[in-house]
Design a protein that fits this description.
about 190 residues, mainly alpha, Single alpha-helices involved in coiled-coils or other helix-helix interfaces, 2 domains
Amino acid sequence: MTKVPSWFDSLSSSSDLPEDITSTMKDVKEKSGFLPNIFALLANRPEEFRAFFAYHDALLSAEGTLSKAEKEMIIVSTSAANNCLYCVVAHGAILRIRSKNAIISDQLAVDFEMADISEREKAMLRFAHKVSFHAQDISEEDFEPLYDHDFTDDDIWTIGSLAAFFALSNRLAGMTHLRPNREFYGLGRKEREG
């Protein structure tokens, strides 16, 4: 049998984790009803766990005109383009809940240009995809459509930072064969009435 690292295709965590890590994991589990697998994966690397979630939380709570749903759109669409099953499923569930739209995640995961979203959101996603795959080619012309849709400089930074951060996250998930929790698949699938 070929030898592989202990973290490959495994979610085993040490029983001797720092208190702040166990506390965070307990809080997340209590809030969501389950512990998302990314927490278990990173728990054995406490410094990386802290840095990853600090930046994750900073980006998702950044001030500006981007809604929480729009931020999740960026994550789902760029993660799909990066073939990251974990992030598409996990953040797809969060997007369905935040947008109160049971089909939006599926549309974005296949083709955001055909999705039932606004031209503003399509401009946002075009820029996010360019950051994900061709950041070195970003030029002045790439900002014009964003300004045309009233994105601020801070919004543009957040769009790019989310795309870049989740490119990193997508690659970690791929390298480790991280799979989504089964609980994510059904979240937000039922259309809300009223």
